[in-house]
Amino acid sequence: MNDRPILRIGTRGSPLALAQAHQVQGLLGGLRTEIVVIKTTGDKVLDRPLADIGGKGLFSKEIDEAMLDDRIDIAVHSSKDLETWMPDGIVLAVFLEREDPRDAFISEKAASLDALPAGAVVGTSSLRRQAQILARRPDLRVVPFRGNVQTRMQKLKSGEADATLLALAGLNRLGLADVAAEILEPEILLPAVAQGAIGITCRNGDSDAMALIAALNHAPSWHRVTAERAMLAALDGSCRTPIGGLAEIDKDGVLTLRGLVARADGSEILETTRSGPFSDAEALGRDAGEELRRRAGPDFFE
Length: 302
Known about the structure:
Layout: E1 7-11, H1 15-27, E2 33-37, H2 41-44, H3 50-53, H4 61-68, E3 74-78, E4 90-95, E5 103-106, E6 121-123, H5 127-136, E7 141-143, H6 149-157, E8 163-167, H7 168-173, E9 182-184, E10 198-203, H8 207-213, H9 219-235, E11 243-249, E12 254-262, E13 269-277, H10 281-296
Parallel strand pairs: 1-2, 1-3, 6-7, 6-8
Antiparallel strand pairs: 3-10, 4-10, 5-8, 5-9, 11-12, 12-13
Helix pairs in contact: 9-10
């Protein structure tokens, strides 16, 4: 009997990444699978903002290399950490049903973002969060805050900041939702593109792997994230660019996309909205991104 796994699942080694990989493993049911942990540059370098060391690809570069070297067959990612354009030879094949995309405000000193006293320190490595926080509360101070969920919680306890923000989806998957003092509605803090969505990548042309994971794709989540990522692509978005985006689909199949770009200091935010049939998700996203890029002009992010 051949005991070789049918499917080798690549993942980062953080508790959240492993929880997501095990979720995929469970959904694959009786298949023989193996989880392969891969250390990424983003996991190793924790003392500098992502934008200063190369951006989002730092959480996927080594995983992509393992896939192209045939050391893994599929990879499980937090979709918001994926590069805007996939590397040659790799395709984004599946989105699981999306978790709650909102951000959670966490603090032992205040019950909400608005309740923080003037001069309070908010720790976040996200320029998107920083820009929107400072636009709403220019009296606060934002400092860099990196590491996995547990690391950031410990930094908060040790007094490195008065508050932080984390994706509610990650807290839910780790069973830590009760640490959230406030759930921030998109009208207050627009989420990151693809926040809350688990994405699965595989090698382009690997029909066996694609066939095994195809049934895991959740069509509404696919259309929502497609719209958001199309907007990001039109904006040429990176970790140096404060961008937020959220697409939702109503009961009539109408997709509504909200998007924004901001200056990192929160001094200016540009927003737009698009609505149309979910089948036009990519076109709606591209159109929204092109509008924001046009309105922002070439010097907006400098």
